[in-house]
Amino acid sequence: MSVPRYWREIPRRSRLETVKCSECGTISYPPRARCGKCGSSKFENYKLPEKGELITFTIVRTPPKGFEKMPPYIIGVVKLEDGTLITSQITDVEPEEVNVNMKVEAVFRKVVEDGDSGIIQYAIKFRPVLK
Amino acid sequence: MRKVAIIGTGMTKVDKHWKKSLKELFGQAGIEALNQTNSPAIDALIVGNMCASDLSDQNNIGALLADHLGFVPNTAYRVEAACGSGGAAFLAAYSAVASGMYDVVMTGGVEKLTDGVGGNTTLSLGKAADAEYELFYGSSFVSINAMIMRYYMTHYGVPREAFADFSVLMHRNGSRNPLAQLPFEIKRETVLDSDMISDPITLFDCAPVGDGAAALILCPLEDAKKYSDDFVEVAGISGATDTVDIASRESLLTFKSTVTAADRAYKMARISTADVDVAEIHDTFTITGVLSLEDLGFCERGKFHKMMMNGAFEPGGIVAVNPSGGLKSRGHPVGATGAYQIAELFLQLTGRAGKMQVPDASVGVAQNIGGSGSSTYVTVLRRV
């Protein structure tokens, strides 16, 4: 992945910053040019909550290119406290211990390395909420 | 707008065609389609393909195939909508003929997945998903559908075994299809005991990786008799979209693009689901097939298993579903799949489907999905 392509998504993927429609209040993650609900193109910045609940997940056993060393790893859809859904990796938990409705929280983690000389890509993943 | 007819079709067997290239495959299908007609001049070629630029290092496929089939200097281009490329190309070809822009158009699709090696193919197919917000995290195309399947199972309390029976039905159908990639019957255990790809999806929940090409020739309905003895009317057609990333959707229990496209195509054809005799639906994974049955209006939500076991989706039931074996057994040469579905319905409606024939079929529906429900093309064909 090129550096600019990685870098320009940092506000979203590393800080959970996105936008909220100024007209109807619909939160859009990722940001869109026009609101999918009301069609407005006026948005204000919005920070997503960092806690939520896992609504579904899978354990990847046959990975795409670049992730060969990672399986088994967990991909899930998290419903954040404000209702926004987000796809990410679920980490710090064994695959057999993951379950639907598990409470999770955002954590900053490495996702993948681009070979020996490429960039190391980081992003928000989610882990079970620490007691 | 002019009414449009299909006057000829050609399909290669879906297979691992190690000896044949992208253009050779489409060449074979194209010649077969032309041979069913009296070979009118082709005014335009509009072809679907998804992965050639990744796996065969080839773009500019329209001109490549026009050259191979001797259509130069007429216009030709490729349409891409992931696994829905074939259906999208068909919609573009239909629009071109209906509008009066061109009279005789060849459309179809071609895919050469076995030119890819290992994870390259998985990555290329994965590009149907959102690159920055799904693939970035190591999602594959399978894993996104696996999340939809788990959500469905959790929501309705449907056991994993119910989905295995869908694969069993597809393979029973496909065992009668001479062009199917996997033309054999399987048992429920075949699915349950196969390798786990992305929980809960196992290998036999998935359509196989294969190569293939299908070609279709369209012309104005009023001219069809001039070119061919066998033709069918394209009675309704629509394409619709949804968000590419699944997390942006209101519900993971439906593909809204299918609901919208089906509603519009049925209205255009002036039919209801009760009028449909045969349907070729998009079952990339068993969960995709089940959601498609529901979204097309053939099945009560969450109740597919009981209905399926009572024969609802076989001839004599509500609708004969995937007599070809569907993506699961016929195979899924991604950018060609939508064209296969329509060509198979053409055979059904002209009474030439052999052992797959649904008795007295007069209305057929093809549903071709790109991505995990982000693009859907629904086409209604009617016997003339």
Describe this structure in words.
The complex is a heterodimer of chains A (131) and B (384). The model of chain A has no long low-confidence stretch (mean pLDDT 96). Chain A has helices spanning 3-7, 10-15; strands at residues 17-21, 27-28, 43-47, 51-60, 73-80, 85-90, 103-113, 120-128. Chain A contains 2 helices and 8 strands, in the order ααββββββββ. A 10-stranded mixed sheet of chain B has the order 3-2-4-7-1-8-12-11-9-10, with helices on both faces. Chain B has helices at 22-35, 52-55, 61-68, 85-99, 119-126, 141-156, 160-174, 188-192, 224-227, 256-269, 286-295, 304-309, 326-329, 334-349, and strands at 4-11, 44-48, 75-79, 105-112, 196-198, 201-202, 211-220, 232-241, 278-280, 320-321, 363-370, 375-383. Helix content of chain B is 36%, strand content 19%. Chain B is globular and about 55 Å long. Classes of the chains: A mainly beta (131), B alpha/beta (384).
Short description:
The complex is a heterodimer of chains A (131) and B (384). Helices cover 8% and strands 43% of the residues of chain A.
* Number of helical regions of chain A: 2
Largest interface: A-B, 38 and 38 residues
**Could you give the order of strands across the largest sheet of chain A?**
6-5-4-7-8
Strand order of the largest sheet of chain B: 3-2-4-7-1-8-12-11-9-10
Whole-Å distance between the termini of chain B?
18 Å
Shape of chain B: globular
Describe the largest sheet of chain A. 5 strands, antiparallel
Structural class of chain A: mainly beta
Q: Which regions of chain A are unreliable across 5 or more consecutive residues at pLDDT < 50? A: none
